[in-house]
Amino acid sequence: MFTLFDVFHILFAYLLLSLQITIIERQVFDFLGYMWAPIFVNFFHILFIIFGFYGAYHFRIKYIITYLIWSFLWIGWNAFLICFYLNVGTLDKDSDLLNLGTGSVSWFEVNGYGCKPTYPTNFTSEDPYRPIRPERVDDCLLTYDLVEVIHSGVQCALALFGILGAILISYIFLDEDDRCDILIRMP
């Protein structure tokens, strides 16, 4: 029937699929908000998830190890985002750090469930290319910073499961690797 290896292999593939779905959702909302730094990092994460799929499917340990190393960097990035949106230390969620100077903000700031933004009526911008931000946003079910923190927290949890799966699959692949047996048996 199924061996333990088959079960881990299938679970790892489903985990990577769920990671792919959640990161594509995050990528879409970052594109809607013109958040350029997260868009670039999300793109690389999608590439490394594909490496993980390829490595698991074709029994390539180096691809899985590459995915494993990236997962640690991904957790670091999401921990930074959590700190950024919670204004930890000198980080400020209203700065232009994530949008790379375009003045854009999270799409969820004005488009979250129940949000009603109030824009200034007589506002003239010094920079006509920067989007106008609302004076205040009322009646949101969850504020945008909380939504972004939840997104990052979910990504950290999924990445931890991905790390665990990659370690288990790598251990199984290395345990079943018999390339050195040929060298030992040769006369």
TrEMBL record:
Q: How does it sit in the membrane?
A: Multi-pass membrane protein
Q: Where are the transmembrane segments?
A: 7-24, 36-57, 64-88, 152-174
Q: Which GO terms describe its cellular component?
A: plasma membrane
Which GO terms of type biological process are on file? regulation of sodium ion transport
The compartments listed are: Cell membrane
Query: Where the protein is mainly located, per its record?
Result: membrane
Keyword hit for RNA-binding? no
Keywords, ordered alphabetically: Cell membrane, Membrane, Transmembrane, Transmembrane helix
Task: Give the protein family.
Answer: Belongs to the NKAIN family.
Give the protein name, as stated in the record.
Sodium/potassium-transporting ATPase subunit beta-1-interacting protein
Species annotation: Glossina austeni
Q: What is the lineage of its organism?
A: Eukaryota, Metazoa, Ecdysozoa, Arthropoda, Hexapoda
